[in-house]
Amino acid sequence: RRNEQTLRALFSEELGAVVQVRAEDKSLVMNVLRELNLGACSHIIGKVNDRGVVEFTRDAKVIYLEKRSNLHRLWSETSWRIARLRDNPACADQEYERLLDETDPGFTPKIAFDMNENVAAPFIATGVRPRVAILREQGVNSHIETAFAMYQAGFNAVDVHMSDLIAGRVKLDDFKGVIAVGGFSYGDVLGAGEGWAKTILFNAQLADQFARFFARQDTFGLGVCNGCQMLANLKPIIPGAQAWPKFTRNKSEQFEARFGMVEVLDSPSIFFQGMAGTQAPLAIAHGEGFADFSLTGDLSQVVQSLRYVDNRGQATEQYPFNPNGSPGGLTAVTTPDGRFTAMMPHAERVFRTVVHSWAPESYGEDGPWMRMFRNARKWVG
């Protein structure tokens, strides 16, 4: 009877909280609770263990024992069953089965370069700031952080709306680089970034202007998220991009907003020079990130520069480590000369450590992804 009462109290649905504190702070915390007149309803109920179990004892006897993973699955079962009906059931099952893995190490970033080295510093010191167009269409929302990242890397970041190019107020001839930013172009209808690309391809003046920019040997470009979709659809006028895929609906059939691990591959991309082998988390926010080679492109020929990996550092198609199901974890492509790169995750949203949802204590002011933007400044020279 007493054991039943104990469990009822611990699993009560009444308003309450479980707070973990360091052992040496126990008395201090209890004193504060008493000062708040909460002492009578505050109790020390246990301590953490490394056995992966939830265990309750009373009068030196175990009155409840269960594996944490089993309880986690029980807690998540309703959500899983709803997801199977609403989303791709195979993806829902993969995410649910993941809860059985009690040995998952979690995020384990591996940085293959010196994060304290600013490769752009010698060029910033000259005072010369090459102009880069922060290109946006209606609905995008990553232009501010992208502009800041490029400014910090030594560029003069210029806000350029598609309407500026259409009206002739701005010309790409005046820029060294173009960053097509992410967000929700056209509210993610009309094929999201595909609709954005068609405003260029179906306008002879714009198509010629972009083709001329891509053909110059002193220019570079990056497309992120919707900008990635846009660049992929511009591949007919991007030299060397013929093997790129089209980015279509995630296999999960849902918009994916996550913080996931990616690996930098050895590629000619100017943005990832010196970073090959790095594995670190990136912000993910897209509904159409599946690299689809079924109608266009060539997986055997495409130049890959980023791929999703699981928490053990292995390339994966497993959901949710790979949030869109792209083959081999592919999530960024580049041209053979490395000047133009299209990537689905948002490096511009996590180039500062403070905006990570979690980061190792070894990170400084800048996270590892700041190196991308500095690499572009180094390439320009």
Protein model, in words:
By secondary structure, the chain is α/β, with parallel strands linked by helices. The chain is 28% helix and 19% strand. It has helices spanning 2-10, 26-35, 68-86, 89-97, 121-124, 143-152, 162-167, 193-201, 204-215, 226-233, 370-380; strands at 53-58, 61-67, 131-136, 156-161, 177-180, 220-224, 246-248, 256-264, 279-286, 290-292, 303-308, 330-334, 340-343. A 9-stranded mixed beta sheet has the order 4-3-5-6-13-12-11-8-9. A two-stranded antiparallel ribbon has the order 1-2. A two-stranded antiparallel sheet has the order 7-10. Strand 3, helix 6 (143-152) and strand 4 (156-161) form a beta-alpha-beta unit. The longest helix has 19 residues, at 68-86. The chain is elongated and about 80 Å long. It starts with a helix and ends with a helix. The mean pLDDT is 93.
